[in-house]
Structures are given as C-alpha cells and as structure tokens.
Design a protein that fits this description.
236 residues, alpha/beta, Rossmann fold, 6-stranded parallel beta sheet, 6 strands, 40% helix, globular
C-alpha cells in the first residue's frame, strides 16, 4: 500500500509568487561541510561532523516537541560533546562551535539573493540558535546586505518543522503564510512549511526528490538561483 500525505494542518497554499522569503541558512545558503576541517583540527574523524549535525537537529527537535526550555545552541554543544565521546576539552569544543560564525556561502547563494532583491521580494535569513552567530556568518559571507533581517527561533522553544516556528517567521516578515515562501534544501523543512500554509521551494542538490509521504514543494530546482527564478515566475 502506498503512503499518502495527510491533509496540511493549515491548508495548502496556492502556488503564488511570494511577497517575502524565509531562507534556510545552514546547508541551503551557507556551507556546513567546512566544519569537517575543524573536527580534524581537534583530532577527530571528519565524518563525525555529519553525525554531529544530524544529532543536533534530532535532539533539538525532540526537546522542543517535549516542551523543554533552553536555547538551541545548548543542544548543539551537547550533541557535539556526545558525538565525540565526551573526549574533547572545552577549548576543543569552542574551536568547532566557533566555525558556525565563519561558514562560506554556497556558490549559488548570491545569485539567488540578487534576483530576489531586484524583484523587490523581502528575504529573511531563517536560522537556528544565536542571532549574533547567524549575523556574523552572514556578514563574513557578504550576503547580509541582501537581507531584510534575520529570524531565529530560540525565543520560541519550538523548532521547525513545528508550524509555530514558520508562523513566527511570517509575523516578523509582516506577511500572511500563503504569501510567504520557505526555501530550503531539507525535505522535512519544506514538509513542515507546506503544512503550516506557506509556499515552498526545495533545492534538490542536497537530498534529491522528497519521499512520497511528505508534502511536495510548490517549486523545485537543482540550484538555489534556479529555484528563485521559478518562485518569481509563479502567478501573482
């Protein structure tokens, strides 16, 4: 028996050109794979980086669903500690964690942001954790100049893909969910946004085609700049 997606909690948004874009940052806009080098710097295997990132997201979402208090950054640090077998010093943990503030941009990120700027579509960096770390990374990458602002969900105690996280982003952007787009390389992120009533765009360079049981994106493309072109081509 084939799995069918359940009906979106907020109703699926029509495929309309968005007035604002919530742009996922980690992996979608900035390269997190460069953190592997920092694992090597502290004597760990670079592949532990992928385990660490997956554990951080899993734990953050799980604690959020359980109603736990605490900033996402604290879950990330503890995930790093656990992934490395509790063998790193605090200084070594700091070395890896500080890498989040200096992540380089994806090669297609600036082209995408330039297109949205020319089209007068407001773009908000939609991230996790500390706003200062996110802002520093965007400053160093040279991308912050294209952004209307940055949005993090530390103050909500609810992480994506919870609907409240996306609706918080819409409130900050002063747009209705149906006229706001979530753009991400993560199929689960697109699923959550679609069920929250947003327009969605999936960059498939990360995970490829989303599973059939998930909400499908309104638009998809191999590159971020291509995806933006398709969003802008949607009917007003």
């Amino acid at each position: 028996m084939s799995a069918e997606p359940s009906a979106p909690a907020a109703g699926r948004a029509p495929a309309h050109r968005p007035r604002a874009v919530l742009l996922d940052i980690y992996d979608t806009t900035l390269r997190v794979d460069v953190l592997r080098r920092r694992f090597v710097d502290v004597g760990r295997h670079e592949l532990e980086c992928d385990v660490f990132l997956a554990r951080a997201m899993r734990d953050g979402i799980a604690f959020s669903m359980a109603g736990a208090d605490g900033a996402f950054g604290s879950y990330v640090r503890e995930a790093l500690r656990a992934t490395t077998g509790h063998k790193l010093s605090e200084e070594a943990l700091d070395h890896v964690m500080s890498g989040f503030a200096s992540l380089p941009p994806q090669p297609d990120a600036e082209l995408a942001l330039m297109a949205l700027t020319r089209a007068k579509v407001a773009v908000y960096a939609f991230g996790y954790g500390n706003d200062r770390v996110l802002a520093d990374a965007l400053d160093r990458s040279g991308l912050r100049t294209y952004l209307r602002g940055t949005i993090t969900v530390d103050d909500l105690a609810r992480l994506r893909p919870a609907a409240g996280a996306y609706h918080h982003g819409c409130r900050v952007a002063h747009t209705e969910p149906a006229r706001t787009a979530l753009v991400s390389v993560h199929a689960w992120d697109v699923h959550g946004a679609a069920r929250a009533g947003l327009v969605t765009g999936l960059v498939v360079r990360g995970e490829g085609r989303p599973p059939a049981m998930m909400e499908q994106p309104h638009v998809r493309a191999d590159r971020l700049d291509q995806l933006v072109d398709r969003l802008l081509a949607l009917p007003a």
